[in-house]
Amino acid sequence: QLQLVESGGGLVQPGGSLTLSCAASGATLDYYAIGWFRQAPGKEREAILCISSIHGSTYYQDSVEGRFTISRDNAWNTVFLQMNSLKPEDTSIYYCAARSGRCVGANSMYNYWGQGTQVTVSS
Asked: Considering Cα of 74, then 3, then 56, then 15, what sign does the dihedral take?
């Protein structure tokens, strides 16, 4: 029912910035918690940030706190991931995901997923 599509990825130099978008259709976002995840080559998918209408945003990675922020648009159609001071280790495929209820850090608890967008941080 709910569909998610990520966009905004690309190649950026270390220290640069990118903003990713997660566009939702089929349902209003305030029924869900929306999380951003990333998966680097050879590594497991990990939660980065999550936002819900009840408790706002939650960080799951110390390495991105202070650099990444999550937000929603006023119409509750799109969630954003603003990434600043990017590092080579941020290179990953980035996914948005949704679940009913509150934010959690485990990817197995999310049942709606986008297809992902590639972010490459390199000189």
From this structure: negative
Positive/negative CA dihedral, 70, 54, 75, 107: positive
Residue 76 is classified by DSSP as S
**Is 44 within 8 Å of 57 (Cβ atoms)?**
no
**Can you tell me whether residue 108 is helix, strand or coil?**
helix
Looking at residue 75, what is its pLDDT?
A: 85
What is the SS3 assignment for 123?
coil
How many other CB atoms sit within 10 Å of the CB of residue 24?
Answer: 22
**pLDDT at residue number 74:** 87
pLDDT digits (tens, 9 = 90+) for 76-88: 899 999 999 999 9
Go through 78-117 and write b for each residue having 16 or more CB atoms within 10 A of its CB, e for each that does not: bbbbebeebeeebbbbbbbbbbeeebbeebebbebbbebb
Q: Residues 79, 67, 97, 39: what is their CA dihedral angle, to the nearest 10 degrees?
A: 140
- CB atoms under 10 Å from CB of 123, counted, come to 6
